Amino acid sequence: MDPNRKTAVAAATLLAVAAATAVAGCGSGTSDTGGPSPAGAGCPVVLQEAKAAVGRAARTVIPWNGPTTGPAAVPGKSLVYVAQTMTNPGVAGVANAVREAARTIGWTVRVIDGEGTPAGIQAALSQAVTLKPSGIVIGGFDPRLTSRQVARAEAAGIPLVGWHALSSPGPSASPRLFTNVTTKVEEVAKAAADWVIAGSDGHAGVVVFTDDSIPFAGTKSRLIEKRLAACPGVRVLARANIPIPDASRRTPQEVSSLLSRFGKDWTYSVAINDLYFDDAAPAFRAAGKPGTGPPFNIGAGDGDPSAFRRINSEQFQAATVPEPLAQQGWQIVDEFNRSFAARPASGYVAPVHIATAANSAGASSWDPQGYREAYEKIWHG
């Protein structure tokens, strides 16, 4: 099939599936934010906008629109990737991609796991500075929580590049980052919320799973709730605030409690990270919920392989707004190369995408085409 035709079919199928799934009408860390959707509440303008946006985000054939020029590879460099926690699939996926890209450009990489605690992250970053690498990656945590270590890195002349370190992409003066690599959080949040609005035809009871200990995640969940509020028939039933390191322990019990409290009123879920649905699945299964929903679940990041497996097998997750984790790992290496060559950051931000069983074709990640070849040409000519 022609690629453009295939994309159009996938997008149309996605919308058809979303329309078909429309339905009528927590312990510590969970807050009630509303009741079930009022009968007859509608949002025709917002609903039309949401359906159009979901169709655009479902496209799979997207030409590379990132950098095609830049400095040649600066030889002999070393990086340390400081991970918020390697149990976060997004953080781990980017770490693996940084390793892959570093091998291609000819650098070395060491990964240090902060294990998800403030003390662990501070110790990991302190160790990274002591190693005196050419550059340090801030992998999924707010550098303002490690201000002393960041100051030490700056004093030592070690550039920092973030991944999901701040809510906005690009360079940062305070805290000082050469650049922060991420999709635009407002676009990811809107895409996830629009998928709920479009799929429910503007009538849904939603639970939002978040981790407010991570400022990036807290911002994302608030933006999701704000967009959902644009449609009066879509109500946020509860906000489940569960730290990612505690997700495997706390999520099953939280889901059981939410099911008991809201019953059939709970028709959709949005999580700031796909891993919540991995941990929620046993509770849904025990309650006799079908893997296909309701509730229909979408992750607003990060699109790791386990999320794609759940989506493709229709097991308690219907969609994700994935980060292009591999592309972002390669971008991190390219940004460091620009720093080492005394050139400005690239300014590239990946476009938002929605993946479902209808358009993922059995893939295990969102891996847009063209970036590897583009970066290799920049580095090696």
Q: How would you characterize the overall build of this protein?
A:
- This protein has helices at 3-20, 44-57, 89-105, 118-130, 147-155, 185-199, 215-228, 247-262, 275-286, 305-312, 325-340, 371-380; strands at 30-32, 78-83, 108-113, 135-139, 160-163, 170-173, 176-181, 204-210, 234-241, 268-271, 296-299, 319-320, 355-356.
- The protein has a seven-stranded mixed beta sheet, with helices on both faces. It has a six-stranded mixed beta sheet with strand order 3-2-4-5-7-6, sandwiched between helices.
- Strand 11, helix 10 and strand 12 (319-320) form a beta-alpha-beta unit.
- The two termini are 34 Å apart.
- The protein has 381 residues and is α/β, with parallel strands linked by helices.
- Residues 1-28 and 35-40 have low confidence and may be disordered.
- The longest helix has 18 residues, at 3-20.
- Helices cover 43% and strands 16% of the residues.
Distance between the termini: 34 Å
Considering DSSP H and I runs of 4 or more, what fraction of the residues is helical?
40-55%
Mean pLDDT rating = 90
Give unreliable regions as ranges. Answer: 1-28, 35-40
* Annotation, overall tally of beta strands: 13
Count of DSSP H/I helices: 12
Helix and strand run: HEHEHEHEHEEEHEHEHEHEHEHEH
How would you characterize the largest beta sheet?
A: 7 strands, mixed
Strand order of the largest sheet: 1-9-8-10-11-12-13
Query: How would the global form be characterised?
Result: globular
Computed CA radius of gyration, to the nearest angstrom: 21 Å
Strand content: 15-25%
Q: Based on helices, strands and strand pairing, what is the structural class?
A: alpha/beta
